[in-house]
Amino acid sequence: MLEILKHRDFARLFAAQVVALIGTGLLTVALGLLAYDLAGPAAGAVLGTAYAVKMVAYVGLSPITGALVARLPRRAVLIGMDVVRMGVALCLPFVETVGQVYGLIFLLQAASATFTPTFQATIPDILEDEGAYTRALSLSRVAYDLENLLSPMLAGLLLLVMSYHGLFVGTAFGFLGSALLVWQARIPQRGSDVPRPFRERVTRGIWIYLNTPRLRGLLAFNMGAAAVGAFVLVNTVVMVRETYGLGESALAVAMAAFGAGSMAAALILPGVLERLRDRRVMACAAVLLTVLTLAHGLWMAMQGPLAWGVFLGVWAVTGALYSAVLTPSGRLLRRSAHAEDRPAVFTAQFALSHLCWLVTYPLAGYGATYGSLWGALVLMGAIAAASTALALWLWRGERVVEHVHPDLPEDHPHILEHGGRRHRHAVVIDDEHRVWPTQG
After folding, report:
1. Domain spans in the chain, listed from the N-terminal domain onward
2. Which residues cross the membrane (predicted)?
3. What band does 192 get if pLDDT is binned at 50, 70 and 90?
4. Which CATH superfamily does the domain covering 1-188 fall into?
C-alpha cells in the first residue's frame, strides 16, 4: 500500500491531510479544556452545542460553499481554507464568552466544509488508476484512525510543558503545514466548461447523487454505519466507566481496539476489492455489523455485560466492519460522475453523510441516557438493519441497461458517439441522462 506514496503529488496531499488531522486532534482536546474554563460543570453542554454547530455547518453550508468555489482554482481554494482555519485557531486562545466559541467554530467548520470535499474530489483526478485510488482510500482511512489514537497522546505530552492555549498554536501550525504541502503539489483543475446558474451549481451534486441507484444505496449504508459508529463514539466512555467501573486508561484501550480493527480492515480492503465487487463487500460488512450490534445489545439485556476482554474483541470487530462499509465510498463516487461533476458529488456525499450523523448522535446519546445501554445498542442495531435492507433494495446491481434518447437531435455528439438513439453503455447522471434508465 505504501508504494502509492511514490506518487509525488499524492504523497504531498496525503502529508497535508496527516498534519491537518494532527492539528484537528489537538484542537479537540484544547476545545474541551477551554469549554471547562468558560462554563465549568456545564462544559458538556457547551461542547455538545459546538459539535451540533459543526454538523449544521457541514450539512447546510457545504453545497453552497462548494458552488461558490466551483470555478476557482482548486489549489487556491484548499490553501485559502487552510489559512482561514489557521486564523480561527489563533483566535481561540483569546475568546472570553461561549458565544464567541460558537461563532469561531462555525467559521472553522464552514472552511472545513469547503476544504474536505474539494480535497477528496482532487485525489481521483491525480490517481486515475482505480487500484491506486483504492489504496489511497485505505491509506486515508488509516490516517483517520491513527489520528484518533495518537493525537490525544500528543496533546497529553504537550500539556506537560505548556498550557492548553498552546495546543491551539499547534493546531494553527498543522493547518499552515497543510497549506504549504498543498502549495507544493500539482493539482489539476477540472471545472466544467458549461456555465450554470448558481442554484443549479448548489443542487447539481445532490441531484446526481439521488438519481444514481448505487449512491442511494451508499447513503443507506452510511446511515447504518453512522448508527453503530455513533453508539461507539458517544457511549464507549459510559460503558467503560459505569458498566465496567474502569478508568481513563481503559477508555483509551477500548477506543484503540475500535481503531485497530478499522485500520486492519483498511489495510486488507484493497486486495479484497480487486476480487469482489464493492456492493458485495459493503453488504456483507453491513449485515455482519448489524448482527453483531443486535447480538451485543440482546446479550447485555439477558446476560449482562460481556467480559472485558470479549468486549474489546467485539469493539475491534465492530471497527473492522465499520471501516469495510465506509472505505469503498470514494470508488462509488468516482464511478458515478464525470470529472467535472466530481467536486459536486463529493460535496453531496459530505453533506448527506453528516446528516446521518446529525440524526444518530442524539439518538445514541439520549437512548442510553434516558433508556439503557443495551436498549440504545438494540435501537442502533435496528436502524442499521433497516438501513442495510434499504441499501440492498435501492442498489440492486450494476446492470448496463439499453436506453433511448428521443429528445436528442440526430447530430448530437452523444448519439453519434454511440451509433444511434437506442444504445447501451455505463450510465452516469448528466445533462444527457437526467434520470436513471430502467426499461429503455
Report:
1. 1-188, 203-396+425-434
2. 12-36, 42-64, 154-183, 218-238, 250-269, 281-300, 306-325, 346-367, 373-395
3. low
4. MFS general substrate transporter like domains (1.20.1250.20)
- Taken as a whole, the chain contains a residue count of 440
> Backbone phi, then psi, for 403, in 5-degree steps?
-145, 170
DSSP, res 244: S
Domains 1-188 and 203-396+425-434 share a fold: yes
Task: For 7-61, give the DSSP string.
Answer: SHHHHHHHHHHHHHHHHHHHHHHHHHHHHHHHHGGGHHHHHHHHHHHHHHHHHHH
Cα distances (angstroms) measured from residue 43 to each of 46, 49, 268, 402: 5, 10, 40, 58
Q: pLDDT by residue (tens digit) across 197-244? A: 777 778 888 999 999 999 999 999 999 999 999 999 888 888 888 888
Per-residue pLDDT tens over the stretch 317-331: 999 999 999 999 989
Would you say domain 203-396+425-434 falls under CATH 3.40.640.10? no
How far is residue 36's CA from residue 10's CA, in Å, rounded to a whole number?
39
Model pLDDT for residues 32-49, shown as the tens digit of each residue: 788 878 887 676 667 767
Please state, in angstroms and rounded to a whole number, the distance separating the CA atoms of residues 22 and 171: 7
C-alpha to C-alpha distance for 61 and 105, rounded to whole angstroms? 13
Q: Can you read off the three cell numbers belonging to residue 336?
A: 458515478
More confident residue, 328 or 252: 328
Nearest to 81 by CA among 107, 114, 118, 55: 114
